[in-house]
Amino acid sequence: MVELKTDTSIDAMHEAGQVVARALTAARQAAGVGVSLKELDEVAHGVLREAGATSPFLGYRPSFAPTPFPAVLCASVNDAIVHGVPDHYRLRDGDLVSLDFGAELGGWVGDSALSFTVGTARAADLRLIETAERALAAGIGAAVVGNRIGDIAHAIGTVCRAAGYGIPDGFGGHGIGRRMHEDPSVPNEGRPGRGMRLRHGMVLAIEPMVIGGGTDGFHAAPDGWTLKTNDGSRAAHAEHTVAITDAGPRILTER
Question: Where does a divalent metal cation 2 bind (predicted)?
Fold first, then answer.
């Protein structure tokens, strides 16, 4: 069932979303050659504590996971697409990093992700990241009252496929509100004019993921959480929490 949020609830979700934005900004600023992924998780955790917020990631255990997620931040590097577990790996020059973060404040949840490079960037990585961001912008642009979920999916998939990139099947965006994952699901590829009609008060986490090698295959790493590309190519991820309103899409996690 899809819960339509009131304007007051959307404002409250914006407050949670701004905690997410601050944490991602802080973690990105802290990232550099020699910095460990655990240190980035600690930075993000510090923002949560300062805001009096909690993490919807920490301890989360969906049906596919062998263990509860052990951190507040997902940190995926190079061929890791999403759900990377922060460990003692220290960032190296040229790494491509994707950070995904959520916060719960006042009973409402925000969720966002970004990708960036550390040190000397490869041109191919910059193009990959730029495409993920363009796909996110296209998806948000389609998130208007009267459109359908398929219009968002089609907008995202069109950008990703036109660039020659792969899209991991079965992973995409979702409704969000009192819980991190709510109905409806928001695929990253689909047919326009299909699916649920968008209404004022719906709030969605829109999150394109792109695989640089152009294939869609992926697998879970031994930790059971991190999803990696089958071809070893790099991946990028971009995400915002977006409210559907009569005035147009409202980005609640804008940095």
Answer: 111, 174, 207, 239
DSSP codes, 31-68: --TT-BHHHHHHHHHHHHHHHT-B-SSTT---TT-SS-
Q: Is 39 annotated as a binding residue?
A: no
- Determine whether the annotation assigns residue 183 to a binding site: no
| Token pair 């090698």: residue | 213
Is residue 104 marked as binding? no
| Spatial distance between the Cα atoms of 189 and 168, rounded to a whole number of angstroms | 10
Annotated binding residue 111: yes
- Ligand-binding annotation for 100, yes or no, is yes
Query: In terms of Cα–Cα distance, which of 81, 172, 92 is closest to 128?
Result: 81
The answer, as to whether pTM is greater than 0.90, is yes
